[in-house]
Amino acid sequence: MHRTEGEWRQLAGEMDARLEYKEGQYHFALTSPDENLEEVHSEGYFDGKIFLNSPVIAGQVADDLTELLLSEMKQNGLPAIHWVVGLEKPLVENIATNLTVLTSRPCLWTIAKKEGDSRNKKISFKDPEIFRDRNVLICDDTFSSGGTLGILTEIVEKNGGYVLPVYPVICNRSGGKRFRGRQIISLVRECWSSWPASKCPPCKNDSRAIRPRSEEGRKLLRES
Ligand SMILES: [Zn+2]
To answer: With 10 labelled, which of 52, 54, 170, 209 sits at a CA distance of 20 to 30 A?
Structure first.
């Protein structure tokens, strides 16, 4: 492993990929409110894409996730992993390359296309037929309530593929350990609370809900 969980969490903080609620100042409007129509607010924020923007860190993220998932899957006899899929190319491609080298079996990868906004997410593959009778590993940068992983799982299964029993993610911010009977493997696990905006305690505590990647959010973070 390149880093322990504590060291990954610390690096995320240093890179502003991980932020926490500051009382009376700011908390976070999540950009992925899933199927909810109301905006979701949270006491924590994690942006795995910041890691993936650095080729060196992206490689290390994939190395550590591959190591964790192989040690988990070897306990039940490692099946062939034919495809690695997800939305983030640096994550998907690096994990597939690692698996090809470490298992001495060719592991292919493909990226899903995402359209629409976070409330009306449309995810698709150019040629989902490739998954028929193949074992497919699905990964993502952040796990919140499973919106993206759920959609990807449905596409693979609908096209006759088998979704492997682990989901590697950089940050699992749900607090839980499983999703749809499969295990979530993460570098960093957080138990942050989230609320619909109308019932959000930090809002009632004079804290502003910010989107850290928006211009306004960046400005507020700099000033605080
Ligand atoms: Zn709020």
So the answer is: 209
Provide the number of structural domains found in the chain: 1
Q: How far is the CA of 85 from the centre of ligand 1 (A)?
A: 33
User: How many A from CA of 119 to the centre of ligand 1?
Assistant: 18
Report whether 65 contacts 100 (CB < 8 A).
no
State how far the Cα of 137 lies from the Cα of 82, in Å rounded to an integer.
8
Q: Residue 210's domain spans which residues?
A: 5-223
> DSSP characters for 23-41?
TTTEEEE-S--TT-SS-EE
Q: How many angstroms does the Cα of residue 9 sit away from the middle of ligand 1?
A: 24
Instruction: Determine phi and psi for 216, rounding to 5 degrees.
Output: -65, -40
Please tell me the distance between residue 73's alpha carbon and the centre of ligand 1 in angstroms.
39
Q: 0.85 exceeded by the pTM?
A: yes
- For 112-143, the three-class secondary structure string (H helix, E strand, C coil) is CEEECCCCCCEEECCCHHHHCCCEEEECEEEE
User: Which CATH number belongs to the domain containing residue 141 in this structure?
Assistant: 3.40.50.2020
**Ion ligand 1 residues within 5 Å by Cβ:** 41, 200, 202-203, 209
pLDDT tens figures, 104-127: 999 999 999 988 765 667 899 999
